[in-house]
Every structure is written in structure tokens, then in C-alpha cells.
Specification:
The protein has helices at residues 19-42, 48-65, 72-86, 94-106, 136-139, 148-179, 187-199, 202-229, 242-245, 260-266, 271-295, 301-306, 313-343, 345-356, 371-393, 397-422, 431-437, 445-448, 458-470, 475-503, 512-529, 537-560, 567-574, 578-598, 601-635, and strands spanning 114-115, 118-119, 238-240, 255-257. It is an all-alpha fold.
Length: 641
């Protein structure tokens, strides 16, 4: 059966979550999670797709060696669940933030910030960090009696988050895969990779191996030689063009990504989405930064005063984000949420009606639970977290309920729609902090711990579900694998953090990324808690209206006038730094306007996912080998930190 013949929902779905897949996931997690946790504290990254691909390839080859090849469905489960495992970073483990709070209350800088005259560290309760003077600060272990209360709090919120996200995953999957049937372009990369590993068609293998070779060679020069041998040829993660544009557009953030990921992903992004992404990014970080500095200095005076000639991409991003785009990004994303809810209102209603009939006709819903169960799960996770947050912090319950119950749905639908059409998600940075900012709350805990916001992970997981449909894999098997991967990752993550903390203090030079990242977070939290960052409600509301208007206008022009600009793509661009947006656009244009003519449109539409998967596979293999080299070099000497 051809993978992309007809609709991406094959008539027969086969199981993939077998004992063999489970064994591979458990063994892979035992190796990958500690390495990924360490890498996130070493350099701020994770193993992600590199480890997932290596696990899938090794499992496939071992199974062939023993004469029992893995099925396509088993490979899909292994690859996608391994992606969940390999994407684990230290910040995704709740216990990591217990260690951070212990650093926060001991940091002399945070004692300079006060709430109603009381230093912030004195407002940190014992359920966020052990009391000052506790021996836990000296013993450096997560298995200390004084850490039990914070541990229970984070475990509770993590469990409620998992329940709510699983409900959202199944609701969104049925809505946008069964009813609306969005393309989810990036899911085809995963499906094609799995299909190539399992079926080994000569034409696909040829394209795949050529792309893999290119990805490996590129990774050798961009990743391996600079990080292992100290020989740099190409700057990573981007080529900074701001020195060239500064004389003409001071403040503009311009560059080209040198990481291969956006280039490979752009091959499967529709052209109108690529155009929308680059226009949205340029309107924000490029022309936007320059225009507000030159012509709106009174609206954003902090940005004008803090900008200095010679700033590169990183500094311009940090300062303009806090001083200009903090509130507008949230507003624009909310505007997209409203438009997507309105656009897909009939599909959402149809999906809910179809799910409600799942008890009588379970085959029609691909085995999804009934609507009653899904709604109960969703409300248990969201409402339960709001109640727990109110009990712990005293923050107004009605605000927490609106945030967790209502905004979760809006964000989940909008983000899934964006991924389904463009391949890229949207995010709402500092959304909870903005809500608390406009409240009368005058304490610390309610700022740094928040109710569950479902719909943040489920859109990306829905992309995985699309790959499951494309490979004729039972969607509920993928759900089970995701649950196992999440739980195993959390457990191994806690054990890994405890081990690394025992080896050396966190932060320390043994984990260099935490040295500046924790300082940044501590200062950012202190500025927000004391309301030292200005958030103009007029800017927030105006940007929400403008975002909704722009998305609606662009979608109308695209649908009725044929203008190749995607509305959701534009909003994704607002959230995307210009180097990555430019790379996605250039790659999308190359794919849709050039390569489709060179190879023929039908053949290229089939092979572009193979090429993208091959590029990322080769790049991922080099990243994995480079990380192994880093471990070897770091293991020779640890002291002093």
C-alpha cells in the first residue's frame, strides 16, 4: 500500500505498541534520559530527534539480524515515543525547579528585591523549597525529608498536567485528523522515515541515503569539528547579519540559521505558509524593531534607551522581547486563537458530536474513549490544578479557572491548527505572568507556580498522531506509548538530576549552561514579581485585535483571492526569530518552486519528505556521535566545578 495514496487515514489500523516496542523504549530511555538531562545543563540543548532516529535504526537492524523485522507500526511507536524521551531536558522535570528555588533563596541578588518591604526569599514557602537553614542545602540530594513537600506539589501538578494533556490530545487528534483533516506537513517526515526503514524501497532508499550523506557531512562541519575538536567553520546556530544592516536599520534582527533543522523542515512546508512565516518574523523582529525604535520612542522608551550599536542577534532578541514584544506576542497569539476557533467551529462541533457516539460505534472513532471520559479527564486536570493552585497560593480561583479551563482550549486549538497547516506551533511566552501582573496578587508563590495550561504539548503530539494515521498505526497504541515514555522520562529524570547534583553543585562550571540561565531566570522572576517590567494593557488588547484582524484578512485573501500568504503562518512568524523564519522560507521556496519542476511535481511531493528525513537522520547521527565525544572529554576531569 502506498503511504500517501488517498486520504492519510488508512482503512485498517494495526497495533504497534508490542512487547518488543516497550522493551526498546525502556532500554533506550535508560541510556538517553541521563544524557539528555546532562546536555541540557551543559549546553541548553537535548538529544531530541538525533537519539530517536538512532534508537529506531538500531532496533530495526537488531530485529532484522535476529530474523524478526519490526513492523512499520512498531517502528512508528518506537520513533515517536523515543522522540518524547529524547526531548527531555532538566527544566521539564519538576524536581529541577526545587533545586532552582534553593539557589534562588540563597542568591544575594534576589534579597535586594522586596514585596511590601519583605525580601522575596523570605516569601518562598516550604512547599516550594526547604526552609532556610535546612541541611538539604548542604547534602545536595533530592531524597531529603525537607524536599518531600515540594516534591509532592510538583508530582501533583505533573499528574494533573498529564491527565489534561491526554484528553486534549485525543480531542484535537479526532478534530483535526478525522474531521477537518489538516495536512500536518512535518508528520510526513516521520512517516516517510519509518516507511523507508521498514519497506526499503530502492527509489526512496536512494534519495534517503543521498540526503543522509549530505546531512552527515554538514553536521561534521557545523557540530562535530567545532564542539569536539574546537575547529569552527560555520557559526552555529545562525549567521548574524545585524552588523551589515545596523547602519541602515538599527535595532533590526536579521540573520540566516545555520542549524540544518529549519532547512530540512522547510522542504515540506507549503509555500504560502513559508511566505507567512517570513513576513510575520520580519514585521516583528526585523522592520518592527527598527520602526518602533525610530518612530515610536515614546511608546517603548526602555527599548530605545537600552539599545546599543553593536548588539548582535542574541542581545537584540533579549532586550526587544522584554521591552517591546512581551505583551504584543501574547495578544497576537490570542487573536489567532479566536480566529481559529471561529474558523473551525463547525469541525469542532462535529468532532464533539462524533466522539459522543464513540460508545455505540467505537470503530468510527478509531478506538478513542467516549466524550464523557475525555471531558471528565480534561476537567479533572484543569479544574483540579486550579483548585490546588488556589489552596496553595491564595490566588483568585476564578482567574485560575479561566486560565486553565478556557485558555487551554483556545491555545490547544490555535496551536494545533497552526501545526496542521504550517508545521510550526505558536507559543504564549509569559502568559501566566502577564495575567498575574494585572491582578492584585501581592506574594511570590502564585507567580512561579501556575495552574495546568493544557494544549501546550498536545498540538505537537497531534502531529505524531498524524504520522500514526499515515503509517496505519492504531492511535491509541501511540497514546499508550506516550504515557509510558512520559512516566519513564520523569522517573529517570529525577534519578539523573539527583546523581548530577551529588556529583557537583547546580549551578556550577560542571553544568555551564545553568550558570547564566539560572541567573537570567532569577532576575526575570524578581523583575516580574516586583512588577518592575512594564506591561501596557492597551498594547496587549490592541495587538490581540490586530492579530485577529490580520489573520482573518490573510486567510480571506488566501482562500478567495489566491494570495499565497497563510494567516497562521504569519502568527508563527511573529513568534519565530528571523534567522529561522528566513531559512524556512528559502527552503520552502526551493522545494515548491525549483525542485518540484526539476524532479516533477508528483515525484517531488513524494520524495521531499524522504529527503528531509534523510537530512535530519545524517545530521542527527553526527550530533549523537558528537555528544558521545563530549562525554568522553568531560569525563576525564571534573574538579573543580
Amino acid at each position: 500500500m502506498e503511504l500517501y495514496v488517498g486520504e492519510p487515514h488508512g482503512p485498517q489500523l494495526l497495533p504497534g505498541f508490542t512487547w518488543r516496542a516497550l522493551l526498546v523504549l525502556l532500554l533506550g530511555a535508560a541510556i538517553v534520559v541521563p544524557a539528555s538531562i546532562y546536555l541540557s545543563m551543559l549546553a541548553g540543548g537535548t538529544l531530541a530527534g538525533a537519539a530517536a532516529f538512532i534508537i529506531a535504526v538500531l532496533a530495526s537492524q537488531l530485529a532484522i539480524t535476529f530474523g524478526a523485522p519490526l513492523t512499520k507500526q512498531e517502528l512508528l511507536i518506537i520513533y515517536e515515543a523515543s522522540s518524547v524521551i529524547a526531548s527531555a531536558n532538566a527544566a521539564g522535570i519538576g524536581f529541577y525547579w526545587i533545586i532552582f528555588r534553593m539557589f534562588y533563596v540563597k542568591n544575594p541578588i534576589t534579597w535586594a528585591y522586596t514585596i511590601d518591604g519583605v525580601p522575596i526569599p523570605l516569601r518562598v514557602p516550604s512547599w516550594l523549597a526547604p526552609p532556610l537553614g535546612s541541611s538539604a542545602y548542604l547534602e545536595r540530594t533530592l531524597f531529603h525529608p525537607d524536599i518531600l513537600a515540594p516534591a509532592l506539589v510538583y508530582i501533583s501538578f505533573t499528574a494533573l498536567f498529564l491527565i489534561a494533556e491526554l484528553a486534549m490530545l485525543m480531542i484535537l487528534s479526532f478534530t483535526f485528523l478525522e474531521v477537518e483533516r489538516l495536512p500536518f506537513p512535518f508528520s510526513r517526515i516521520d512517516a516517510m522515515l519509518v516507511d523507508t526503514l521498514s519497506e526499503r524501497r530502492p527509489d526512496r532508499v536512494k534519495f534517503f541515503m543521498a540526503a543522509l550523506t549530505f546531512g552527515a557531512i554538514y553536521g561534521l562541519f557545523v557540530v562535530a569539528l567545532p564542539y569536539v575538536a574546537g575547529i569552527a567553520f560555520i557559526p552555529l546556530p545562525w549567521l548574524d547579519l545585524t552588523p551589515l544592516t545596523e547602519p541602515y536599520m538599527p535595532g533590526a534582527l536579521l540573520g540566516i540559521a545555520t542549524d540544518l533543522t529549519p532547512w530540512a523542515g522547510g522542504l515540506v512546508v507549503p509555500f504560502e505558509a513559508g511566505v507567512g512565516i517570513v513576513l510575520g518574523s520580519m514585521a516583528t523582529w526585523g522592520f518592527g524593531n527598527w520602526l518602533v525604535r525610530e518612530y515610536l520612542p515614546g511608546v517603548f522608551p526602555e527599548w530605545v534607551s537600552e539599545y546599543r550599536p553593536g548588539m548582535g542577534i542574541a542581545l537584540i532578541w533579549q532586550r526587544s522581547m522584554f521591552r517591546v514584544w512581551f505583551a504584543p506576542q501574547i495578544g497576537v497569539a490570542l487573536g489567532l486563537s479566536l480566529v481559529m476557533i471561529a474558523r473551525f467551529r463547525r469541525s469542532i462541533a462535529k468532532a464533539f458530536a462524533a466522539l459522543s457516539r464513540a460508545i455505540k460505534s467505537p470503530a468510527e472513532s478509531r478506538g478513542y474513549p467516549s466524550m464523557l471520559i475525555l471531558i471528565s479527564m480534561y476537567l479533572a486536570g484543569t479544574t483540579g490544578s486550579a483548585l490546588l493552585h488556589w489552596y496553595l497560593t491564595g490566588f483568585p480561583l476564578w482567574i485560575s479557572l479561566l486560565y486553565s479551563v478556557a485558555l487551554s482550549l483556545l491555545i490547544g486549538v490555535a496551536s494545533t491548527a497552526a501545526i496542521g497547516e504550517t508545521g510550526f506551533s505558536i507559543s504564549l511566552p509569559y502568559l501566566w505572568h502577564t495575567i498575574v501582573y494585572f491582578s492584585d496578587y501581592r506574594d511570590y508563590p502564585g507567580w512561579v507556580i501556575m495552574p495546568v495550561l493544557a494544549g501546550t504539548q498536545s498540538p505537537g503530539l497531534t502531529n505524531m498522531m498524524s504520522a500514526a494515521y499515515l503509517t496505519q498505526t492504531k492511535p491509541m497504541d501511540l497514546v499508550k506509548a506516550i504515557v509510558v515514555a512520559f512516566i519513564v522520562t520523569q522517573v529517570l529524570g529525577v534519578l539523573s538530576l539527583d546523581l548530577f547534583w551529588r556529583i557537583a553543585p547546580i549551578p556550577s562550571s560542571a553544568y555551564p549552561y545553568t550558570l547564566f540561565d539560572w541567573a537570567r531566570i532569577a532576575i526575570g522572576d524578581s523583575l516580574l514579581v516586583t512588577r518592575s517590567i512594564r506591561i501596557d494593557p492597551l498594547v496587549l488588547l490592541t495587538s490581540a485585535g490586530a492579530g485577529a484582524g490580520v489573520v482573518a484578512l490573510l486567510e480571506a485573501l488566501r482562500l478567495y483571492a489566491g494570495v499565497p500568504i497563510s494567516g497562521p503562518g504569519f502568527v508563527v512568524g511573529v513568534m519565530t526569530l528571523t534567522p529561522y523564519a528566513a531559512s524556512v522560507f528559502l527552503s520552502s521556496a526551493l522545494s515548491n518552486l525549483v525542485l518540484s519542476k526539476v524532479f516533477g511535481r508528483e515525484r517531488w511531493m513524494e520524495m521531499r519528505s524522504v529527503v528531509a528525513a534523510g537530512m535530519m537522520a545524517g545530521y542527527g547521527i553526527i550530533i549523537g556521535l558528537s555528544i558521545a565525544g563530549l562525554f568522553i572529554t568531560k569525563s576525564s576531569w571534573l574538579w573543580p566545578w
